UniProtKB/TrEMBL annotation:
Lineage, uppermost ranks: Bacteria, Pseudomonadati, Pseudomonadota, Alphaproteobacteria, Sphingomonadales
Stated name of the protein: SD-repeat containing protein B domain-containing protein
Origin: domain of life: Bacteria
Length: 439
């Protein structure tokens, strides 16, 4: 796999100089590079060793091309808890919501402290490339994270401060490849913005709004007059400055959005009790986890946990939502430093101030094309299950009284059957002999 930074620019006038308006493309498809530094921020195709880990994944914005406007293949949006939304964001508050600075993990790379963001993309297997063309981050201490309107509109002008702009030093696009992490449950890109950009903001009261746009690169080919850039050595990227193999033809392709959503998230290793289960391949479709049937990595579950606390005569209802993915057998989903088994997922449970709290959880499996749910932890295989549990059964080592165990058909485990096609031919048996030899 290629490492380091590889970049190219559209030399529209053929003068060999990067002029204003000539876009620079940073290759994270690993054809020639997998890392980049753009206007002080870092972009990685795979997690660096200093990454925050996998812990609890908290999605805060999904964008998806509606396909019914005058710009098919292009999509954009930002996170907010305000409704209605202004661009092409998912309307569910589970996936598009406000984000506090304190919710974003910090990592140190080459002596510099950064905030870490993650990006998951979805493209067709037959057309797996996608461009990230705009990326802006704003901070705000007002309106409880209720960013609204267009990013150059009145709300942003009055309430928000721009702390990062990918195009701040010139037009830039990051080229991504969905096939590198397809179905694995891993992020497709890791983005690091310096903590210093936020100017010492109070993390507990500062809201972060991330705006992104995809698909503007469209098609890159010989007509774009692309030229390779001589990238310097960069210790933050572990790049020795070699540009061997950097050829413009390596990034030729179609980069428009064509399938599913793009999702930004943050991840934090959470110390606390968790519950978990497994996704398994119900190969014979009988709704049971039989001997020899294997677990499945890269499946997503959305969940909602509710519980009540009481103080005097006041009862408060609490709700926690989130998204988790099953391990591909190479990652640590619990944050305990140990790689978790294939197919395992973990949901961290917020602690309650009440004794022996009763929680209610709803877990929804996100379907995948070509599969049907055969078991979801209860008697109705409908991709969802709801049950109650008590805090006395929660532990920091997996809560076995609540969680699903490997190889067992029980609560919190989900089974799916891989659909297939069969076919045959209907004949007219003219002489009634049961043979197709003569008709």
């Amino acid at each position: 796999m290629a490492t380091g930074q590889s970049s190219y620019w559209k030399d529209l006038d053929g003068d060999g100089e990067i002029d204003a308006g000539e876009i620079i493309y940073y290759d994270l498809t690993t054809e020639t590079g997998d890392r980049a530094e753009i206007n002080g921020a870092l972009f990685f195709a795979t997690a660096p060793t200093t990454s925050s880990g996998t812990g609890l994944i908290n999605a805060f914005v999904r964008v998806q091309d509606g396909g019914n406007d005058d710009s098919p293949g292009y999509e954009d949006g930002y996170n907010t808890s305000f409704r209605p939304l202004s661009y092409e964001e998912n309307t569910s508050p589970t996936f598009t919501k406000s984000l506090l600075l304190s919710d974003i993990p910090e990592v140190t790379i080459d002596g510099v402290v950064y905030y870490e963001f993650r990006l998951d993309i979805n493209q067709l297997n037959s057309s797996n490339l996608l461009s990230l063309d705009e990326l802006q981050i704003f901070k705000s201490a007002t309106s409880a994270g209720l960013a609204q309107g267009e990013i150059d509109g009145a709300w942003f002008t009055s309430n928000a401060s721009l702390v990062y702009d990918m195009d701040g030093a010139g037009d830039a696009s990051v080229l991504l490849d969905y096939s590198l992490q397809a179905g694995s449950g891993k992020s497709d890109m890791f983005f690091y913005v310096p903590k210093s950009n936020f100017g010492g903001a109070d993390e507990s009261t500062t809201y972060v709004t991330l705006y992104s746009a995809f698909g503007e690169a469209d098609v890159l080919d010989s007509s774009d007059q692309l030229a390779a850039i001589d990238d310097p050595a960069n210790s933050k990227l572990m790049d020795d400055g070699s540009d061997a193999g950097d050829t413009p033809t390596a990034i030729y392709g179609t980069y428009t959005a064509n399938d599913g959503f793009e999702e930004w998230s943050v991840s934090k290793v959470v110390d606390g009790p968790y519950i978990g289960g497994y996704k398994f391949n119900d190969a014979n479709g009988n709704g049971a986890w039989d001997l020899g049937e294997v677990a499945l990595g890269g499946w997503q579950f959305d969940y909602t946990i509710t519980w009540e606390t009481k103080q005097g005569n006041v009862t408060t209802l609490h709700t926690e939502t989130g998204t988790v993915k099953t391990s591909d057998g190479t990652i640590d989903v619990t944050g305990d430093g140990v790689v978790d088994p294939l197919g395992f997922y973990a949901i961290f449970v917020p602690p309650s101030t009440d004794n022996n709290e009763t929680y209610t959880i709803t877990i929804n499996e996100v379907p995948q094309s070509g599969w049907i749910n055969t078991y979801d932890g209860d008697a109705t295989p409908d991709y969802t299950t709801t049950f109650m549990f008590q805090s006395k059964d929660l532990t920091t080592t997996g809560s076995p009284n609540i969680s699903g165990a490997l190889g067992m058909t029980e609560q919190m485990n989900f089974g799916n059957f891989d659909l297939f096609d069969i076919s045959g031919t209907k004949y007219l048996d003219a002489n009634g002999d049961g043979s197709t030899g003569s008709r």
